[in-house]
Design brief:
Distance between the termini: 53 Å
Number of strands: 13
CATH superfamily: Vaccinia Virus protein VP39
Shape: globular
Oligomer: single chain
Largest sheet: 7 strands, mixed
């Protein structure tokens, strides 16, 4: 078990779930730095947060510190990382933050389970593709964005699901969402998908927010009514 400190929070994770590159980012403090920047720029006390792809629990902890642990809900697909995230949130005083196990799938899919590829490090894991080795694939619960938004009623949505954002945004988003943070993964899909994400946000009254965006992490902010 390895231990790291980020922004005054303490995190532990089994060594087997890390790559050398990921461990280096954790040691240097560069882990999820753009996601953290987006959260700090837009999250306000009183908000509710839904984080898709919590991983280690770091961004969830940042959110819980601002809005309170009971106002943050995290989702994680990797079976081994669910307990890691729960333990890390609890060790930092945020045991009331809920961590849900499952992977996001299109609203049209009716299967209660979905194939998930376990990568050599947790952050390289994603929904399975036809070319993936069957030995690396497990079945995890299939979740729907619409149901999560309805139940947890977030004002901020954070999405880092290793390419799953390509099909995630189908149905209209609730007006209560003032900020959506999406980490794009252009290596997993063509530029047309990135355009689709931007077009969808625009159609839902959200526009590109340069203050909260950097690199592949893009923040969208609701446009105030005239």
């Amino acid at each position: 078990m390895l231990e790291f400190e980020l922004d005054g929070f303490s995190f532990t994770i089994p060594r087997i779930l890390l790559s050398d590159r990921l461990a280096g980012k954790l040691r240097s403090g560069n882990y999820e730095m753009n996601d953290a920047r987006a959260v700090r720029s837009r999250l306000q006390p009183g908000d509710r947060v839904l984080e898709l792809g919590t991983g280690l629990g770091y961004v969830g902890a940042l959110c819980a510190e601002v809005v309170g642990p009971d106002r943050v809900t995290c989702v994680e697909a990797h079976p081994d990382m669910v307990e890691v995230a729960r333990n890390n949130l609890a060790r930092n005083g945020f045991s009331a933050t809920q961590v849900i196990h499952g992977a996001l799938t299109p609203e049209s899919d009716s299967d209660p389970q979905v194939a998930f590829r376990m990568g050599p490090a947790f952050w390289s894991s994603a929904l399975a593709r036809p070319q993936d080795d069957p030995a690396d694939i497990v079945e995890v619960p299939a979740l729907k964005l619409g149901a999560l938004l309805e139940v947890h009623k977030p004002n901020m949505l954070i999405v880092d699901i290793e390419g799953g954002e390509a099909f995630l945004f189908e149905d209209p988003l609730p007006a209560r969402l003032h900020t959506v943070v999406v980490e794009l993964h252009p290596g997993r899909y063509p530029p047309t998908v990135i355009k689709q994400v931007f077009d969808f946000m625009s159609a839902n009254g959200l526009t590109y927010d340069p203050d909260g965006s950097r690199g592949g992490v893009v923040t969208f902010q609701r446009v105030a009514a005239a």
